[in-house]
Amino acid sequence: QGRRDILSGYAANVWWIATWIERGYNMIPQWGFPGAYFERVRRILAISSWMEMGLPNPRPIGTALVVAAAAWGAWTVRRRTEPAVHFAFAAFVVQAFFVWGVSVHEHHLMLAVPMLAVAAALAPAFRGVFVAVSLVAALNMNLFYGLGNGVGWAIPRMIAPIDLSVVLSFVSIGVFFWHARMLAGTRIGHGWNRDRYG
Q: Residue 11: how many CB atoms within 10 A of its CB?
């Protein structure tokens, strides 16, 4: 994925927000401000186009953010023995790649869903994060592809003043930080059956 000349491949993440900001900026002469930011994000933004505007190369930035998040997660769970925590950590790494990585596609978050399903089954405290990540993944796919490969009903992206894919991107980032908080152990112990799972 790192070789692709795209900032975000329809992934609801920080780089899709960057795409929305930059596309809106370029449409201000046509639609005015703030009207340009209330238009649909129509096309993926190329990294080469991003850099032609004098903006920094996003690849090392995205990579550094993913590595930092994964390293933080690994350090956080280093002494934990509960299987649920490690399933949640594996899902967290996938989510970090999805939220902060460059050239990520909308379907890349799906890998986190089954791992969080296991974590939620073992520790009920993860159920909320499991549901939230599942919804983000499902909505991300639906907004761009309907019920499958562009066929079937899709939620209209412009039912809100701002493109719903952009709103979902902000939600996706919020869910990432919620997952991080849960991984840090603020409420993980709730519902944990230590006699059964150790």
A: 27
Residue 107 is classified by DSSP as G
**Is 11:100 a contact under the CB 8 Å cutoff?**
no
Kindly compute the dihedral angle of the four CA atoms of residues 185, 189, 192, 197, in this order, to the nearest 10 degrees.
60
Place of tokens 């925590």: 85
**Alpha helices by DSSP H, the chain:** 14-31, 47-52, 58-76, 83-100, 112-122, 127-145, 164-183, 194-197
- Distance (Å, rounded) from C-alpha 91 to C-alpha 111? 7
Select from 113, 117, 125, 116 the least CA-distant residue to 193. Answer: 125
| pLDDT, tens digit, 9 for 90 and up, residues 66-103 | 999 999 999 999 999 999 999 999 999 999 999 999 99
Task: Count CA within 13 A, CB hemisphere, residue 32.
Answer: 1
133: its two tokens:
């990540």
d(CA 32, CA 15): 23
Measured CA to CA in angstroms, residue 26 lies from 9, 13, 22, 23, 180 at distances of 19, 20, 6, 5, 35
Q: What is the pLDDT of residue 4?
A: 85
| Rounded Cα distance, 180 and 92, in Å | 7
Task: Specify whether the CB–CB gap between 34 and 162 falls below 8 A.
Answer: no
- The low-confidence residues of the chain, meaning pLDDT below 70, are 1-3, 148-151, 186-198
